[in-house]
TrEMBL record:
It comes from Xanthocytophaga agilis. The keyword Signal applies. This is Outer membrane protein beta-barrel domain-containing protein. Residues 1-20 form the signal peptide. Keywords: Signal.
């Protein structure tokens, strides 16, 4: 993940940045709406979704209202395969953790870009509450009599050994889901690449820290935490009005 962020950062240096040229492009628009995909060091292949609404304060500053919906994984999660039917599951996993992060922040313009070309660079900062959705991870089990039972993984249950697991159960089961309360803060750099005058694409890289009021048990037999840190990459599309 860190290598990906580093490579993208280098690529952003290739386009010509309008360091000295002042443009009134931003003054034409008072609001922005951004949506994109999140990648982070705790989220696996795709971390989640990002939404953000921004309004202009002055020529250099915007206030932002955002929402992130992100899957938080434990570093000890290892996907296994059932010897009985070949279905996959994560042995040892007891809960999912999905983080809903409403946030308020500021965006400070560092470098402008010429209209429809170049790269616009901004510093991003945001803070807000975290609502951790702790959803049980269910597995399908062979009860030894030709029946299949669905249960949350429990390391203390001798029936939950790998030879009895047939795979992970349907994700739609919500029984036992709980909410963990917390807070988060993030800081990063946003690189907006030239597009149409009323829209643009780009990416944002940065770091995030998130703290819950108690430990969130994802993999019971491993070390679990109440504080999570991560590097992130957001790839986004932005519309302006």
């Amino acid at each position: 993940m860190k290598r990906i962020i580093y490579c993208i950062f280098l690529l952003c240096l290739v386009p010509t940045i309008s360091w000295a040229q002042e443009s009134d492009e931003d003054e034409e628009y008072q609001t922005e709406f951004l949506y994109g995909i999140n990648f982070n060091t705790n989220g696996g292949l795709i971390g989640g979704l990002v939404l953000r609404y921004s309004t202009v304060i002055d020529s250099k500053m915007k206030q932002t209202f955002g929402l992130e919906i992100v899957n938080v994984k434990h570093p000890k999660e290892i996907r296994s395969q059932s010897a009985t039917n070949g279905n996959t599951y994560i042995y040892g996993k007891s809960n999912y953790l999905f983080a809903l992060r409403p946030q308020y922040g500021r965006e400070l313009l560092l470098f402008r870009k010429a209209p429809e070309e170049g790269v616009r660079i901004s510093a991003i900062g945001a803070i807000g509450p975290s609502f951790g959705i702790v959803k049980p991870y269910f597995i399908a089990l062979d009860d030894g009599f030709g029946n299949v039972t669905i249960e949350q993984f429990d390391p203390g249950n001798i029936r939950h050994s790998q030879q009895n697991i047939l795979g992970s159960a349907a994700f739609t089961r919500l029984t036992g889901t709980k909410i963990a309360m917390g807070i988060h803060a993030k800081a990063g750099l946003s690189f907006e690449i030239g597009g149409f005058r009323s829209s643009a694409t780009g990416f944002e890289v940065g770091a995030l820290v998130e703290a819950y009021t108690k430990k969130v048990i994802i993999v019971p037999l491993a070390e679990n935490r109440s504080v999570f840190t991560s590097m992130y990459l957001n790839i986004f599309f932005k519309s302006k009005r």
